[in-house]
Specification:
Strand content: 15-25%
CATH architecture of one domain: 3-Layer(aba) Sandwich
Largest sheet: 7 strands, parallel
Bound molecules: uridine-diphosphate-N-acetylgalactosamine
Strand order of the largest sheet: 3-2-1-4-5-6-11
Order of helices and strands: EHEEHEHHEHEEHEEEHEEHEHH
Number of helices: 10
Shape: globular
CATH topology of one domain: Rossmann fold
Radius of gyration: 19 Å
Mean pLDDT: 96
């Protein structure tokens, strides 16, 4: 296990779950977050055990300073909203493209051993082949997706040109405690949980038979730890999902049963650009990282529901 690491975006949903696990494993953790979409409250239970700095990945001097004694960087900081990226492609490029380049450049000059980069299944776009395999073509459909693909390219280059170890994890639909439900484009599970907790009906867009590969955040954290430690994985991109899928309709069925609510969902037109089907092929993660998703959807939803139920509204 590494001794000291940095988590960018560590106050966010995935970042804070990762920080919690690293603290549990007695790793010294530094967190850099500009709190634009993360919350200090996410770090509250283990705030005393980490070194938190409010700062921005657009600022390379801050990155260089904070990385001076760090072995591994988990780069989770990003603008994560696809619609926001379409609204403001320049801002997206500044934070995601340039921010990732800054992280890699600071890592190169600071003697960091490895950078683990949070990429996204969005890079596949709407190409019809399923399940999604890493060697398939990519087709970003938004500045967000383009920024993740650019990040992957830079990560590989920094290995080839400068010998910096990098691993890119293409996250599929991640869910779990601390996912913020407040935007209409928040993850569907966070929105459905929030509705169920408030006793309000959710909206299902389209016929609800579109499906996704939902991966529980603790499995995502585990894959990050493996990606930080395994040998012979540098320069590769790896899908991070479960290899299984579920439709939006059956997702609401599961969640309404868990919550004991009877509400019929409201129906609305499909969202423009909504992808019909998405599921990961995960054999590369299994082979290279020894990764196996440990949480079934039922178990993950149960744990997630406990968290949303206990939130105060
Ligand atoms: C995910 C990512 C996005 C991008 C994209 C690439 C999340 C939150 N978003 O978008 O960043 O990487 O994948 O393909 O992980 N839905 C409803 N009702 C709601 C909300 C959503 O029916 O209130 C539907 C939505 O139309 C879609 C499905 O649920 O068919 C999943 O939606 P999502 O926003 O959670 O994730 P997705 O796959 O569109």
């Amino acid at each position: 296990m590494m001794k000291k690491c940095l988590v960018t975006g560590g106050a966010g949903f995935i970042g804070s779950n990762l920080v919690e696990r690293l603290v549990d494993a007695s790793v010294q953790v530094k967190v850099l977050d500009n709190l634009s979409s993360g919350f200090l409250q996410n770090l509250e239970p283990f705030r005393g055990y980490i070194d938190f700095k409010e700062g921005d990945v657009r600022d390379i001097a801050t990155l260089q300073e904070i990385m001076s004694d760090v072995e591994v960087v988990f780069h989770q900081a990003a603008l994560v909203s696809v619609p926001q990226s379409i609204e403001d492609p320049i801002e997206t490029a500044m934070v995601n493209d340039l921010g990732t380049l800054n992280v890699l450049e600071a890592a190169r000059h600071s003697g960091v051993r490895r950078v683990v980069f949070a990429s996204s299944c969005a890079v596949y776009g709407d190409l019809p082949q399923l399940p999604k395999k890493e060697e398939m073509d990519t087709k970003p459909l938004s500045p967000y997706a383009a920024s993740k693909l650019h990040g992957e390219t830079y990560a590989r280059l920094y290995g080839d040109l400068y010998g910096l170890e990098t691993v890119c994890l293409r996250y599929f639909n991640v869910y779990g405690p601390r996912q913020d439900p407040s935007s209409p484009y928040s993850g569907v599970i966070s929105i459905f949980m929030d509705k169920a907790a408030r006793g309000a009906p959710p909206i299902i867009y389209g016929d609800g038979e579109q499906y996704r590969d939902f991966v529980y955040v603790v499995d995502v954290v585990q894959a990050n730890l493996l990606a930080a430690q395994r040998e012979n994985v540098s320069g590769v991109v790896i899908n991070l999902g479960t290899g299984k899928s579920v439709s939006v309709n059956s997702l609401w069925k599961h969640i309404s049963e868990l919550a004991g609510v009877q509400d019929e969902p409201k129906r609305a037109n499909s969202r423009p650009g909504d992808i019909r089907q998405s599921v990961a092929e995960i054999s590369r993660a299994q082979e290279l990282l020894d990764f196996e998703p440990r949480y079934s959807l039922e178990e993950g939803l149960r744990l997630t529901w406990e968290w949303y139920r206990s939130r105060s509204y």
